[in-house]
Amino acid sequence: MKMQKSDVRMRGFLKRTPVNTLLSLVKKHSHLLPAEDIPTVEASGRILAEEILSPVNVPDFDRSAMDGYALNAEATFGATSYNPLMFKVVGQVTPGESYKGVLKPGEAISIMTGAPVPSGANAVLMAENAEFSNDHIQVLEAVPPGKHVGKVGEDIKKNQTLLRQGRCLRPQDIAVLASVGLTNIKVVRKPEVELLITGNELLKPGEQPCGVQIVDSNSVMLAPLIKRDGGLLAKVHHVPDDRDLLQQHLSKTDADLVCMTGGTSV
Question: Cβ distance 126 to 16 under 8 Å?
Answer without folding.
Answer: no
